[in-house]
Specification:
Elements lengths: L6 E7 L1 E2 L11 E2 L6 H15 L8 E8 L7 H14 L1
Parallel strand pairs: 1-4, 2-3
Helix pairs in contact: 1-2
């Protein structure tokens, strides 16, 4: 049996306090509140759509970038990571 290579997972949090002029990432200055719960649910729904491609493969790294990932609340980050773990 062929062993599939490990995966690295990138999770994008697109908001910043302000957009830095040198930044090329798909990120946006925050206007109002971060939609923590809705955004995390959408991320997990996206993962549900693609999780079959990861079956049998180890996830070696998870990179959370953006934007400013720390703008996501602690409880929302916990829900996100718990959801990733449950699916992978």
């Amino acid at each position: 049996m062929v062993k599939l290579p490990p995966l690295s997972l990138y999770i994008h949090i697109p908001w910043c306090v302000q957009k830095c002029p040198y930044c090329d990432f798909n990120s946006h200055a925050l206007k109002g509140e971060v939609p923590h719960d809705d955004y995390v649910q959408h991320l997990l729904n996206d993962l549900d759509n693609d999780v079959a491609y990861a079956q049998g493969r180890e996830v070696k790294t998870i990179f959370i970038g953006g934007g400013t990932p720390s703008l996501l609340s602690g409880p929302a980050m916990q829900t996100l990571l718990d959801g990733v773990r449950a699916r992978l």
